[in-house]
Hints:
By secondary structure, this protein is an alpha/beta fold. The chain is built from eleven helices and twelve strands.
Amino acid sequence: MFNILVTKELPGDWLGLLGKECKIDLWKDVYPPPKQCLMQHIKDKDGALVTLTEKIDKEIIDVASKLKVISTYSVGYDHIDVRYAISKGIIITYTPEVLTEATADLIFGLILASARRIAEGDRVIRKGQWNTPWYPTFMLGREVFGKTIGIIGMGRIGKAVLRRAKGFSMRVVYYSRERHNVDAEYLNLDELLKTSDFVIVSAELNELTYHMINEDKLRLMKKDSFLINASRGKIVDEKALIKALTEGWIAGAGLDVFENEPLPRDSKLVNLENVVLTPHLGSATVETRERMAEIATKNLLLALKGEKPIYEVRF
């Protein structure tokens, strides 16, 4: 049997499937294992099934002398030193595609919640502050239908957002490292920011996209525009965004990801009314999370047996 480490409980019965062919060392806490604990448990393993909260760096890889595969239960793999792992002969697998539609749904939820002040309205009622039945200027928001949406990154999720935007008769513009054959207009990043009513961050995190949306870029956006990020928190300079929201450079934001997660309780974002915050819920549907578990376990088993995984990270 293969000797494997699994760093989280998984939905469905996929650990049962793994248990038929592997001896499982399972970390049962919802919190990620401390680094020293992770190093201790991974050193004799043939494979590891991890999540985005476990940082698999060079030091961890070096102690895992028997490791053949790291299967990550995520579409992103920036938490793994992928290049170094591959150089050591370790296969890296991931779970793209399956979470595309769920994440695009959430992005549109953030668009609507931000523009129409849905979360803010909910708070008004819960706090007992709805004192007048109705009047013409009460809690005015912005329309979404027919507006311009700018998508940064035209991968799977970007294309899924585009399809939804067409249902709202929106003009779609996009910026990406390369042009795509899509029903949208390509613009450079600065023009996209100047043009869009809703700016959607759907790029992957790497050395080029880290703090791509910084103070200079935020100042280019329209004062009545919204920034939506359900990709990776570190693509947006959070301090600059707080300044933009506080000083009114933009109208608002919808954020599912943050530079540090969980978001610190003393973050200034928490006290801003013009931002909608969700705790990294992009893929958080029953259907998607169970499918991710299926893909992650199958990736792991296939790689351990010397067969081709369903999704492998390659450079």
